[in-house]
Amino acid sequence: MKGNSVKYVCRECGHEENKWAGKCPECGSWNSFEEVEAASVNVCNPNTTVIDTSVRKLSEIPYEKTMRVSSGISELDRVLGGGVMRPSAVLVGGEPGIGKSTIMIQMLSSLSSSSSVLYVSGEESPSQVKMRAERLGLDTSKIDIFCDTRLEALLDLIEKRKPGYIVVDSLQTLSTASVASSAGSPNPD
């Protein structure tokens, strides 16, 4: 009997599920899930499942073209080395008002044509985000928005909905009940 020590990982895109599925909800590949031991944990990040624990030459590792997805913005793809790397996190920084939120909503609009997307807004109301997207002529019909700054609420939503791509605008607005300091301030522990 299989317990919590087994996960299923799509060999095409790396998407993880707790149970086997015929079709990957992330990349759409059929019969691509492989059973892996969930107990194998990455030392750098204890929440990440390690798929391959063997030691090999880096030069022997094949490059998987499905790991990079176009953001829909050619210059952003160029800066990111060819597109958004899956799985990864990208921190976009800069002065207020230079267009970070605008670029992110444009990217999510493009990515929403092939995957589920979530825009997490801690600074603007849903109507403000919608007005920006409509001003740019973007299709907003497949973009989900969540306006809450509680990390626990966000993690719960992510676990339930499992979006393919998430933009948190802005990361410094998130707070957690497990840390006494205010949102955006460094944790002294």
Helix-strand blueprint:
Layout lengths: L5 E5 L5 E2 L15 E5 L30 E2 L4 H6 L4 E2 L14 H12 L5 E5 L4 H10 L7 E4 L4 H11 L3 E5 L20
Parallel strand pairs: 6-7, 6-8
Antiparallel strand pairs: 1-2, 1-3, 4-5
| Overall pLDDT metric | 84
Terminal residue distance: 41 Å
**Count of β-strands:** 8
Shape: globular
Account of the 3D structure:
By secondary structure, this protein is α/β, with parallel strands linked by helices. The chain contains 4 helices and 8 strands, in the order E-E-E-E-H-E-H-E-H-E-H-E. It has a 3-stranded antiparallel β-sheet, with no helix packed on it. A 3-stranded parallel β-sheet has the order 7-6-8, with helices on one face. Strands 4-5 form a two-stranded antiparallel sheet. A hairpin with a 5-residue loop joins strand 1 (6-10) and strand 2 (16-17). It is globular, with a radius of gyration of 18 Å. The termini are far apart.
